[in-house]
Amino acid sequence: MKSPFTLSHEERNEFITLIQDYYLREHNEELGNLQAGFLLDFFMREIAPTFYNLGVRDSHTYVSNKLDDLFEIEKR
């Protein structure tokens, strides 16, 4: 299944580099571009949607609270 998110070529390369740096630092092993790209694809497909949805819910809560504040100053 394809990821519901799209990255620019530059963003994808930046994330691949971050994954490679992390893996080298934490596991003392190098990941090639292909391996790191597959790992990025997995994260984007399986994990990123959950964080996206959390952001949507947080935004909804924020906007709802601001609307409540707006209605509180309504003149009667």
What does this entry look like structurally?
This protein is mainly α and 76 residues long. The chain has one domain. It contains 2 helices and no strands. The chain has helices at residues 9-27, 33-72. The longest helix is centred in the last third of the chain and has 40 residues, at 33-72. The protein is elongated and about 65 Å long. 3% of the residues are buried. This is DUF2164 domain-containing protein.
Task: Count structural domains.
Answer: 1
Helicity level, as a percent range?
A: over 70%
List the helices and strands in order. HH
> How many H/I helices?
2
Low-confidence regions: none
How many E-type strands?
0
Distance between the termini: 54 Å
**What is the CA-based Rg, rounded?**
20 Å
Classification by helices and strands: mainly alpha
Question: What is the mean predicted local confidence, pLDDT?
Answer: 92
User: In what range is the share of β-strand residues?
Assistant: under 5%
**Shape designation:** elongated
- Biggest sheet: strands, sense, closure? none
